[in-house]
Amino acid sequence: MKNQIGKWLTILIPLFIGIGIIYYQYTTLSSDEIEKIKISFQKANYYYILLSLIIACVGYWSRAYRWKFALNHLGYQTKFSSNFLTVCVSYLVNLTVPRSGEISRAALLKKYEDVPFDKAFGTIVAERIVDLLIFFIFVFIGFVSQFDKIYQFLLSNNVSLQSLIITAIIGLLCFVIFVLIWIYAEWKIILKLKKKLSGLIEGITTVYKMKDKWKYIFHSFFIWFSYLMMFYVAIFALPETTEISFDVVIMGFIFGSLAVGFSNGGLGAYPFSIALIFSLYGITKDVGTAFGWLVWTSQTILAIFLGLISYLLLPILNKNK
Predict the structure, then answer these.
(1) Which end of the chain is least crowded, N or C, by CB within 10 Å?
(2) What count of other Cβ atoms lies within 10 Å of the Cβ of residue 9?
């Protein structure tokens, strides 16, 4: 009984928070802006939204295919269907509690493919590290190409560039100190943690040890390319966004990705982030918000649909488990 209550609370609490965020954003819009957003949805070309969803599915496939290289390196020959279905479920779970999908993904693989949880989770952490590095490349490209625009925006909001640089340096130093302590320190607590997390560490270190590392890296870049193309194709769905230049698309993609990463699937935060960054380039708030909701809604429906179907198919395709 307690477990059932816990599961329902895990789903309902983020859902109510999300509804609260949406309601708050709704109240910040004027009746004229809301009407313009409705009109944008009505006149949207959903052919491009469908194409965006197809590209997203290719990204799902690539993420599942990439995973097999890390698992094979650890000696586990999992079925691709299990990899793909668990990935789809993880996208669904991430809509409730941020990053909880990674835990469910490792747990499901343990249940249906007998891969130890710590090792499976370690490979997922390794994926996230690689994904973060690739995302930083996008951030670097976007911020270098749009430095003047971003600098003026920071100045207008009383944020100095110097304070951001100092914060980044302090954060980097703390990270380096932590890594050095972890590698070289022989304190008892560190040694105990290393022993307990040995499976997790083995999973994380698969990337640079695996035989197929270049295939792994190729799929890592391909996944992010599919994410970018998924976003880029969607701009043609609205007449007001079809003329957006590619550098603006990259900035919208970066801020949209941040919104998804730091919230439960970008609920509420995604349209707000897109509208904010687009406004720097003269795109009105109602158009930016409408575009954000259009992309977020379509991708969320896809995640829910594939996640639920995958959750039902997993036990059917693995009856012996």
Answers:
(1) N
(2) 10
Name the amino acid, one letter, at 219.
Answer: H
Q: How far is CA 266 from CA 81, 150, 271, in A?
A: 27, 22, 8
Arithmetic mean of pLDDT, 60-72? 93
Torsion angle of the four alpha carbons 278, 280, 285, 288, in this order, in degrees rounded to the nearest 10? 0
Tokens of 203: 């999973």
Report pLDDT digits (tens) over 106-137: 999 998 999 998 888 888 988 888 898 899 88
* pLDDT tens, position by position, 176-203: 887 777 676 667 766 666 665 665 666 6
pTM: 0.78
| 3-class SS of residue 239 | helix
Instruction: Give DSSP secondary structure letters for 251-298.
Output: HHHHHHHHHHHTTTTTTTHHHHHHHHHHHTTT--HHHHHHHHHHHHHH
Question: 298 near 304, Cβ under 8 Å?
Answer: no
User: DSSP of 186-211, one letter per residue?
Assistant: --HHHHHHHHHTHHHHHHHTHHHH-T
What is the number of other CB atoms lying within 10 angstroms of the CB of residue 280? 16
Instruction: Tell me the C-alpha distance between 12 and 64, whole Å.
Output: 28
Position 260, amino acid: V
∠ CA(280), CA(285), CA(291), 5° rounding? 100
Tokens, residue 267: 């609920």
Q: What DSSP designation does 45 have?
A: -
User: 273 is written with which tokens?
Assistant: 């982030």
**Distance between CA atoms of 125 and 143, rounded to whole angstroms?**
26
